[in-house]
Amino acid sequence: MPLRPLPPNPDRFSMPVLETHDLTVRFGGHVAVDGVTASFEAGTLTAIVGPNGAGKTTYFNLISGQIRASAGRVVLNGRDLSGAGTAARARAGLGRAFQLTNLFPNLSVRENVRLAVQAHAGGGGSMLSLASGHRDWIAKADRILAEVHLEAAAGQPAAALSHGDKRKLEVAIMMALEPMVYMFDEPTAGMSVDEVPVVLDLIRRLKERRDKTILLVEHKMDVVRSLADRIVVLHQGRLVADGEPGAVIASPIVQEAYLGVAAPAAAATPAAPAGREGAR
Amino acid sequence: MISLLSGDRPRSAVLSVILLAILVVLAAAPFAFPGAQALNTAAKICVFVILVASYDLLIGYAGIVSFAHTMFYGIGGYGVGLALYGWGATWVSVFGGLALALGLGIVLALAIGLFSLRVRAIFFAMITLAVASAFAILASQLSGFTGGEDGRSFRVPPELRPAFKLFEEPVLGLDITGKVLTYYILFATALALFLLALRVVNSPFGSVLKAIRENDFRTEALGYRTVVFRTKVNCLAAAMAVVAGGLNALWLRYTGPDTTLSFAIMLDILLMVVIGGMGTLYGAVIGATLFIVAQNYLQKLMAVGAAATEGIPLVPHLIHPDRWLLWLGILFVASVYFFPTGIVGRFRKAGPH
Ligand SMILES: Nc1ncnc2c1ncn2[C@@H]1O[C@H](COP(=O)(O)OP(=O)(O)O)[C@@H](O)[C@H]1O
Ligand SMILES: [Mg+2]
């Protein structure tokens, strides 16, 4: 039984920045995301939780356009983006950091971020100016790299980074795009304990600006509890709970389906085959 | 100098010396080598520098494999050639033919790009192959217009003819004939287009091309419409190939399927890019020079070798001039095997960055 959605700021009316209506995708007979309707407001951080294979990454893919929906709509600031391609959605303000790191391996760390800065500046079209002449783009890329503590690695190829640093670069690229909606897909997965706070601080600072809409897929419940204004629970592609963190975590369906309190139900939860996860 | 090179230096002392040597020799070729064959070789190098550099924009920078590059080369050759043949030997024919060829080439590149650059790379390669074959067949079938397999010989504007003399007196012992003038038109255009290509790959646009080659999926996710970038570079490379074809026609005073459209030329271009080093542009200069010099002088060198080794069993047979194609092949297999990143890649790794 799904909980009633709770507005994150009950005393303040705000128009949703991002809405999905009955968003659905089928892979063959398998419904990976099944009629998910939700809306997300500016200045809020929504955690999206659910067991492996619940459809969280696929939900992100449907929003940012990597996968076309079988049915349903994606609306950003009242504009229907369902027919738009990936690039158009990125330009419209949907930012995405991938669960499986997705970088330009042979380009330098700085160039990885600079390309995103350039995309945000709408500057990819110029054929006759020098990329290295746009000092402001390079300076901005370096500033963002410093925020994720990667400034020392700026000159290295992205492929040479450690796993944790690649995850940070992934986040840095999204920051450089300055989107309206930030989608973090397990940003701290596989990071060492001392690296995790760097990314979490970044997300916290982003949240404190209160003008951005943040969606965060995260497994660590303490992280979710400390950052989220709201939790959405996906289970087998369906939205099964949506509301204020305390209430959602306490709800029987989450205890059962996600936190695995009732052991038999948790054992029955299908786990995603690792290789098929993520957009790539 | 550095700004002419768009800040993209050869990044290796050996490479800089080789490139400078090629530049000086090509610039001084009419004065340094009196023979017709030497100047023909130098002119061919100039034409192929444009052709190979533009192909490198596609394959080396944007990761696009096209087999239609000789088609655009042919469009340039036929455009200028047929205009001179049909409208008379005037500059209006030269520039009118070139403009028409550029228009046709760019429209075709745009169409091929928009229709097929969305699909997987292998399909794009197949489509370009099909279009190029169709074009080659068309060119030989429309023999009333194109001269068919025989092609067309034509006269060039008076200023470009061998009998024309720019000055009464020779300069540094050389008569500045129309042929010499034509050579310098080729040389200057090749230099300018090479520097333009170097500028483009170091521009914001060029940085997106490299991003597409690395990870097109991610490039799209940054908000770049990769098909637009691919199509634009496809058009740019096609336009450069058209110009190369036009220059080649001016030099040869002939246009025909063998000199422009043949698939053998496409293979030569591919080899030159790979030998020089993909995605470096400087590789285009080195690859084109080495290949064309080998093509033109290997036979002679072998004749000398065969004569010198007379008396030794087997050796003179192996290096008999008739076997030059075999040795050319071996040379290329060896160079690709030993320098998988091309000559430029090889020297860059050895030298300081
Ligand atoms: N491109 C795809 N083709 C087929 N099945 C897919 C594809 N992407 C995801 N799936 C399947 O959809 C389900 C949801 O996967 P995913 O969204 O990655 O889950 P989560 O991110 O919640 O772990 C899984 O069963 C997965 O195997
Ligand atoms: Mg996932």
TrEMBL record, chain B:
GO cellular component annotations of the record: plasma membrane
Gene Ontology terms for molecular function: branched-chain amino acid transmembrane transporter activity
InterPro entries membership: ABC_transp_permease, LivM-like
Organism, as annotated: Prosthecodimorpha hirschii
Record lineage: Bacteria, Pseudomonadati, Pseudomonadota, Alphaproteobacteria, Hyphomicrobiales
Topological category with respect to the lipid bilayer: Multi-pass membrane protein
Listed name of the protein: ABC transporter permease
Top-level taxon in the UniProt lineage: Bacteria
Keyword Ion transport set for record: no
Subcellular location: Cell membrane
Keywords annotated in UniProt: Cell membrane, Membrane, Transmembrane, Transmembrane helix
Coarse class of the protein's main subcellular location: membrane
UniProt keyword Cell division present: no
Residues annotated as transmembrane: 12-33, 39-58, 70-88, 94-115, 122-142, 181-201, 233-251, 263-294, 301-319, 325-347
